[in-house]
Amino acid sequence: xxDLLSVLASGILxxxxxxxxxxxxxxxxxxxxxxNLAHGAFLTLGVYVTWWLNTTFGMDPLVSIxxxxxxxxxxxxxxxxxxxxxxxxxxxxxxxxxxxGVWLIVRNALYLIFGxxxxxxxxxxxxxxxxxxxxxxxxxxxxVSAFSLLGFVVLALMLKRTWSGLALRAVAxxxxxxALSGVPVNRVWAVAFGIGSALAMSAGSLMSLFYSVTPEFGxxxxxxxxxxxxxxxxxxxxxxxxxxxGLGIAEDxxxxxxxxxxxxxxxxxxxTAALVMRRADSD
Amino acid sequence: MSPDSRTxxxxxxxxxxxxxxxxxxxxxxxxxxxxxxxxxxxGKHANVGGFFRDGYQLAVEEANAAGGVEIDGVRRPIELRVxxxxxxxxxxxxxLERLIAVDGAVALLSGYSTxxxxxxxxxxxxxxxxxxNAGGASKSIFREGNQWVFGALSPVESLASTTLxxxxxxQGQDRxxxxxxxxxxxxxxxxxxxxxxxxHDVIEGRTDRFELVLxxxxxxxxxDHTSLIVKxxxxxxxxxxxxxxxxxxxxxxxxxxxxGLGHIxxxxxxxxxxxxxxxxxxxxxxxxxxxxxxxxxLPYERSRHFVERYEAQFGGPVTEYYPAVAYEAARAxxxxxxxxxxxxxxxxxxxxxxxELDDSLLPGGRLYFPEESRLQIENRCVIVQNQPEGGVRIxxxxxxxxxxxxxxx
Amino acid sequence: MSSFTRRHLLLxxxxxxxxxxxxxxxxxxxxxxxxxxxxxxxxxxxxxWNLVGGFAGQISFGNASLFGxxxxxxxxxxxxxxxxxxxxxxxxxxxxxYGVAWGWPCLRLRGPYFAIATIGVAEATRIVANHIEAAGGxxxxxLPLEQDLGPVLLYALGAVLAVAAVLVSAAVRRxxxxxxxxxxxxxxxxAAASGVNVARQQVTVFAVxxxxxxxxxxxxxxxxxxxxxxxxxxxxxxxSLVLMVLVGGIGTVMGPVLGAGIYLFxxxxxxxxxxxxxxxxxxxxxxxxxxxEPRGAAPRLAQLVGLVRRRIG
Amino acid sequence: xxxxxxxxxxxxARGVVKRFGGLTxxxxxxxxxxxxxxxxxxxxNGAGKTTLFNLLSxxxxxxxxxxxxxxxxxxxxxxxxxxxxxxxxxxxVPRPFLAMTVFESVLVGAQFGRRVPGKPAAETxxxxxxxxxLESRRNAPVHSLNLAERKRLDLARALATRPRVLLVDEVAxxxxxxxxxxxxxxxREVHASGIGIIYVEHVMEAVMDISHRVHVLDHGxxxxxxxxxxxxxxxxxxxxxxxxxxGS
Lengths: 283, 409, 313, 248
What we know:
heterotetramer, C: 313 residues, mainly alpha, two-stranded antiparallel sheet, 14 helices, 79% helix, D: 248 residues, alpha/beta, six-stranded mixed sheet, four-stranded antiparallel sheet, 40% helix
């Protein structure tokens, strides 16, 4: 029983991380209809920036979010303005190539600056945990989960309550109609890419609390982010949160009760089955 | 941009590529002896590839500082050419072909990680080129009838068997219970599979000594290990053995500490002394036990020399075994070329087969390639334990031990 | 219809003759013959991917799952004593069956849903393959070096497979199947309303894609003599094919061929000459190409050929 | 009336219901297209005309009720099967295959539509291109076509499937009077070649001019059936079109 609860708790905690790293991908897809292959680059960059700030200035990873968010926004908006924007009239799939190129360049820059060795950081609360009844919950993971929920609330409020949120949603629904209603579509795209990248980079800040990083870090989580986003319904932030948690739980249950080696098999099979079944319903 | 202004770019691009290609194809002057390697400097295994490059480079520079290698009475410098195979098993062999055909390499040094080295060894075996393997510890790399592939890294099994021998030795000192309840998890890669084989080979038929209460694999680069650790907790073992590469090790041990587990002894295969490990886990890695193909704690002259040179050049402290083994492998190859007094493949191979280094930095202090193990060395590992506040101490074998191991409750 | 077939046959024979003519050049040293092998494999893979990705507009990130099935089928049969040539049809068949098995449910999805579902299938396949002990698990399989086919035979085999793949691609493009695929790519509902059986068309072409991809896997096994799930079922392989086709020109017959060549050339070129910045250089070149030619190299080449023809004529 | 009509009906809907969530788009609808007839289908926006077309052509399956083509139940069939049984349609907003030429687009219909032995597909396609006055644009890429041409292309593609029944969705909307006349002319020719037509249209002059009978829908249900002259006089129709206030 304790085992089951531990596994469930772990699944939820991991799942919220999945959700957080996927928000940005979902937002970018929703607004630009672009599958952001450079997502992994922003995640990795987030971890490295956080690691560097921590080891150089002793900055806490949670504080470094204040830096990774604006930095991510600036970088993302720049990539959109300078590159993605130029392919707006080309088949959507061509942006895959472009963003893959961006990813390669970022990766190379990281190799040159940081080398290929694993890097990880340590904070005073890194290995602390909290006893809740029979459960032991990791404090960094609890913090990250709280941030993930907070991120969801902020994002949802932003989309619902603010002007830019309205513009984002309008463009997501129908680009041409939004443009005709006076929404500055070009700017909205840059903003969406910026927010998406800011989310990815800040996800990196949070993930630095428990993952070690190499320039290849993003590759590990890119595919998983895709799963979460698609399972959650691509543009639906709430769906992404639920999908992330669901996937986390499914993985941990499989790992514990079936076989640890099959945790990712399950997440991918759940993904495919859910897609196929949902589509069959709506046919 | 009009279509025409776009096309204008093409001759320019073509020119740049063409010139670059010509430059890339040039062989270089013929005075030097060229040896080559394709290493994973980017991609999945890049966290290790750089260490190998450093180790190779150090050995080559040392040889050149000593005047190079004497061939037919002329001393000739050695040039090391390294390419990045991006951790890709189909690119890696093609780069080796390139090293032989275009760059004129007379011998090759291996890449790192068993799958990549497995893909590489086909090339030297097909072409008949000496190949010195420092990065793939799997026995399966050394095929039946192998004449060209020399292994400077003992099999992974020896990591496991040395660890268990240590445990048995501690049992003999009455410091560990019998039978010992062992929980073992292993990374589902070639490395982990062979580690598991090594463990099974030792405990087979030793029910009085060991009871294996968990035997489970996990995927390389897992996104979380908490549920596995909960499983480990639930089997209530005395010792916890895991075989993991660095990212998984960091995550796994983090979950281990977070979940409040404690075993009499905890070992993650070869993991433990690395610098990045203490960077991320701090004091939580104290008392971890690991099996090492090399450790800076070894008291040999050559080993001290290597540590000094390496740290002077690349900064230190050098805590990983990778550059040391790479250095030793390259050094063995260079010595063999010198012994052969020739750059002919056959001659170098024969020299390697007959090579015997008495000043090796590897455990045991000797390096030769026994034919009965298909040219893979069989040097033992040493067991080291992380010390609080950093550093490691050799705890096994007893003749090399610097002191007794700390065993938890 | 029949005239197309004859023309294709001529083109195929011509291409093979051309490849036979340049064979001494490419077989001059082991490196160039290895590059030729990789090129043939890439042409095969990219052409196969383009059938479903380019013509039907279904972007698959999961072709490695088919490649791996082919590679393993050939490896296991070879180790069981079957001559590698004889294993090839089996590899193609098994890959086609596996392709249909997961393509049939997944191809009902479109756009990013299909793309991501294919990632799911391929990754699940890779991990399961890692656990199949009979196939060597994560250690993979090493193939008998003594039975190596040798560079000449490997070259010939690769050339035939690559030319065959391009011919299949050209034939599909010109056939009723190809017309239906492009129709459903442009508008699946309108195509269905015009009588196109969208599901069957897609599954049919996917079976062809899968068979060709399986052959590429079989060929890979035969020339590298070592298969391991991490490589043959890996995501890197799946993504590289997509990039090749995009560089060359998606949805065209020659695009995948050009793309396979350009991709291989650039990759080897930057790997060898720009050691420390090869990733960035390669990335920058990809970006450069796609910004200059968003539709890939093939349409531009066709334009140039047309220009030359007009000048001459 | 359903008895004798059913015997000779080309297409018949019986008690068809289609709901979208809480909204009932089509409610227990009966409809029949008789042999050799052009049936006009009119009604205000949201009356369910396009939904009905989507039901007849198999894009949607009805929640209940039956649809018959020449006496055969087709409501459970996918749209390509319905097309091959001889029911083709055009779309309200044309849905061209943008990457193709005009001829290729029409060829799709000819290749995949109803099988008629002994007729090469290319010949059929060319005949339909001619019929819809697109000869001059035969090899033009579809994306270069204007709206009127695209509408005719939709028609050509549908005709190339050699249908027994053609569903035409607002083929005259957005066209100038000359183009409307031309289109109506084409429809007459199509009818003359023995194809039954159900014609949804907002341009009243077009639909009243050409239809033998007119079926009027409102809120997913029938409010009147009759000759063009009869329905224009029907108070229920006037009310539906002009609103309750105008009627009172």
